[in-house]
Amino acid sequence: MRQTAPHPEAPAATPPSPTTQPASRHRIIVVGTGFSGLCMGVKLREMGEDDFVLLERAGEVGGTWRDNTYPGCACDVESHLYSFSFEPNPNWSRLYAPQPEIFAYLRHVARKYDLMRHIRFHANLIGARWDEVRRLWVVRAEDGRVFEGEVLVSGMGGLSNPAYPDIPGIDRFEGPQFHSATWRHDVDLNDKRVAVIGSGASAIQFVPQIAPKVAHLSYFQRTPPWVVPKMDRPVTPRERADFQANPWRQRIARNKLYWMLEARFLAFKYKPEWMGLVAKVGKHRIRKHIKDPALQAKLTPNYTPGCKRLLISNDYYPALARTNVSVITEGIREVTARGVVTQDGREHPADVIIYGTGFKVQDPIPKGAIFGKGGVDLVDLWREGPEAFLGITVAGFPNFFVLMGPNTGLGHNSMVYMIESQAHYIIEALKVMKERRLRTIEVKPEAQAKFVSHVQQALTGTVWNSGCKSWYLNERGRNTAAWPGFTFAYRLKTRRFRLQPYRTERA
Q: Of 121, 279, 468, 492, which residue is 20 to 30 A from 109 by alpha carbon distance?
């Protein structure tokens, strides 16, 4: 299907007043309206299912791409692949789309596929509990609304809750401080002394944008990332017109991108030594832009590229080479009223502190949010780390599905491809339930354990488990985030729903 220009922005929904209301009953409840939730909604509509709701904690759709509005925010996967296969956009302005365009794209999808009437805004989930007697999910929102459904689908994602560092004294700081995911556009950074804590994917993008404006930028880096060139450029009007007139050309471009990125997994899994070529490119760029040997040493990683997320940027190193930027690798001891104190006792003055410390990827679902059979909290069940069959279903949690669940994250391709695979699997499960008149399905513990064991075994020897500390690993050093195979292999595993791994109860 071809995409027209996104609709103009509609006013955000007004939060309803807190109240206790009669439960709203539906067959399916989906939590979240980012890429995952919207994809699920579209696929439900395609199968002819109309009895579902999408619960959104904010007043507009978009998830991560609604919330992250920091300067320079953009996708690090090419736009034509970081979009739904069923809704191509011929109008991307750049090869790597900036945040406002992705946000507009998601709003467009919600409107084009008639999802807005299914969305309940300002419905911040505070608890979802499986009712074993009535065999349904009871979901409570912060404003007092209650939703009941036979099936619960989590589309909350791993990049929905910002992670703040555990640093003594944060509350003592007298100036503005905020996370990159909740950027304070009302805070003027011009001629200010700014401390940036964290050197991940977000900092790579916003540091070059703010460095020319500030009086001084103190950049606190714990571990340097590998940064390679970003092969970005504007998409010409002629190219856009060609994609609009000939959608098949855009499909070919998307397929080329997919297989090019998919080939990178060979190095991640089977040929880690190939990542040495990436290291050479990264080191060359450091030497090209950073002339100070001491700063070069600070910015050169000592781990295999890909072990931590591989980042792309053309302006990161030039920004760090500026005379008003200091890269600080000494550990942070505390935050004071006027700045940041490192372990050597030196205080680095700051008027503003910005945290570029990422998200709670290892804790995508907060404690007290989802309760399964026997009132078991999902977080307690995942004490050793999140795990699920195919990254989608969890033993002890009937009729519960997770999008972008454990061990389905990627370091080499587009997560939208994985999301579509998971949504397809859930749709197939719902069809089987309807055809066979099943009231509940629940993955068997032994099936889940076998799958998880296979995944952990497959992760052995991959670049993600090569020794560095990253968001792929939890505190115990277990990789609970990355999918250890090709994405097309995951799609083959999820193309059909089989009942054999599941316990069932008839309606």
A: 492
Residue 362: which pLDDT band, with cuts at 50, 70 and 90?
Answer: low
Residue 194 Cα distances to 50, 178, 321, 455, angstroms: 50, 11, 16, 42
Place of tokens 């993008």: 205
pTM strictly above 0.90: yes
CB within 8 A of 122, min separation 6: which ones? 13, 14, 15, 16, 56, 57, 58, 59, 141, 143
Write the pLDDT tens digit of every residue in 468-497: 777 777 777 788 888 999 999 999 999 999
> Tokens 């609709």 correspond to what residue?
7
420 or 268, higher pLDDT: 420
What tokens does 16 get?
A: 């309803």
CA dist 267 and 274 (Å) reads 6
Cα–Cα distance between 440 and 76 in angstroms, integer?
39
Largest CA distance in the chain: 71
Cα(366)–Cα(377) distance, rounded to whole angstroms? 10
Q: Amino acid letter at 180? A: S
List pLDDT tens digits, range 189-213: 999 999 999 998 999 999 999 999 9
Which tokens go with 483? Answer: 């999918």
